[in-house]
Write a structure and sequence with these properties.
Number of strands: 16
Shape: globular
Radius of gyration: 17 Å
Strand content: 25-35%
CATH class of the largest domain: Alpha Beta
Number of helices: 6
Order of helices and strands: EHEEHEEEHEEEEEEHEHEHEE
CATH topology of the largest domain: Fructose-1,6-Bisphosphatase, Chain A, domain 1
Structural class: alpha+beta
CATH architecture of the largest domain: 2-Layer Sandwich
Length: about 260
């Protein structure tokens, strides 16, 4: 695990409201595909020791890219399935079409869609949609964070001994090892530890106060871009350490418990 740096919001640029409209439409469309897919046999494209790739990931990303491309054909896209890159001089959509694929593959109801828009290194818009619960989390830089239209804030828990902390385990030995050690430490020091299996939704839960913190090594940019903005706009704290290209060690909380 590297040295964490606190990430702070910079000067706020304003996105046209059509960005939010497109992001919400894309997230809801992907959510519809996910709900429909639960009623069908789940097609696995690739499985490894600690991960799985599903055909529905691809279907969701294609639907999201189509909506983005229709409204913003010149914007860049960085997404889990189709790749891409962050543009230096244009808006970039950062997409995880189905976060929590392993959960989804076993029909465990903890998964989501994550869509963010970044420009000049700053997240300006974040949308996370959990279709099972019809929960739509939205953050706009400088405008706060909302769940289904209502403002949300991080919890007011001030001691780790009273906190519920979620952790995630990565897909490789290099990311699993530190998280096993972290789990052991937190099991003795936190009130409760939870491993829920979808980082973006974990971040949303910190933003709205269901969780007090979350930590994981080796996350990808598309896992965290929307959730990081949600937490900051909800009054929380984001700490990042670079772990490779588009890879991060992440620690977030309500600003009090770490």
């Amino acid at each position: 695990m590297g040295d964490y740096q606190v990430i702070a919001l910079k000067g706020v640029d304003v996105l046209d409201s059509s960005y939010l409209d497109a992001a919400v439409a894309a997230a809801r469309r992907a959510g519809e595909i996910q709900l429909a897919g639960l009623r069908e046999p789940i097609e696995v494209r690739q499985a490894s020791a600690h991960d799985v790739k599903l055909q529905i990931d691809v279907a969701c990303e294609e639907a999201i890219r189509a909506i983005i491309g229709e409204s913003f054909p010149h914007d860049a896209v960085l997404a889990e399935e189709g790749g891409g890159a962050i543009a230096e001089d244009a808006a970039t959509w950062i997409v995880d079409p189905l976060d929590g694929s392993v959960n989804y593959s076993r029909r465990i109801p903890f998964f989501c869609v994550s869509i963010a828009v970044q420009q000049y290194g700053q997240e300006l818009l974040g949308v996370i949609y959990a279709p099972i619960y019809d929960e739509l989390y939205v953050a706009e830089a400088g405008k706060g964070a909302r769940l289904n239209g209502e403002r949300i804030r991080v919890s007011d828990v001030s001691r780790l001994a009273d906190a519920i902390i979620a952790i995630g385990c990565g897909k490789s030995v290099s990311t699993l090892t530190p998280m096993v050690e972290t789990f052991r430490d937190l099991a003795f020091t936190a009130h409760k530890v939870r491993m829920l299996g979808a980082a973006a939704l974990d971040l949303a839960y910190v933003a709205m106060g269901r969780l007090d913190g979350f930590i994981e090594c080796g996350l990808r940019t598309w896992d965290i871009a929307a959730g990081n903005l949600l937490i900051q706009e909800a009054g929380g704290r984001v700490q990042l350490a670079q772990a490779g290209e588009y890879a991060w060690d992440l620690r977030v909380d309500n600003g009090r418990v770490w």
